[in-house]
Design goal:
Distance between the termini: 33 Å
Helix content: 25-40%
Structural class: mainly alpha
Order of helices and strands: HH
Largest sheet: none
Number of domains: 1
């Protein structure tokens, strides 16, 4: 993923560095570069990082085509 995108761990690091309130990942499960073992590989890693860092309420992984409207 490093050629053209950040990997899930790097994305969470950016989220922390910029002190974002919410992170909504994009392009997950929408294309397969062939470098990952499965199309959902990046999302699977991100889910583990979210759990490890306790970000379930701040990093929202939406299903393709769905939206999230903040109540804030």
């Amino acid at each position: 993923m490093q050629r053209v995108h950040v990997d899930p761990k790097e994305a969470v690091q950016i989220f922390e560095d910029v002190r974002a309130k919410i992170m909504i990942p994009m392009h997950h499960r929408t294309f397969f570069q062939g470098l990952e073992p499965t199309p959902g590989y990046a999302q699977d890693i991100l889910e583990k990082v979210i759990e490890k860092n306790g970000y379930r309420d701040r990093i929202r992984i939406l299903e393709i085509g769905k939206q999230w409207i903040s109540d804030q």
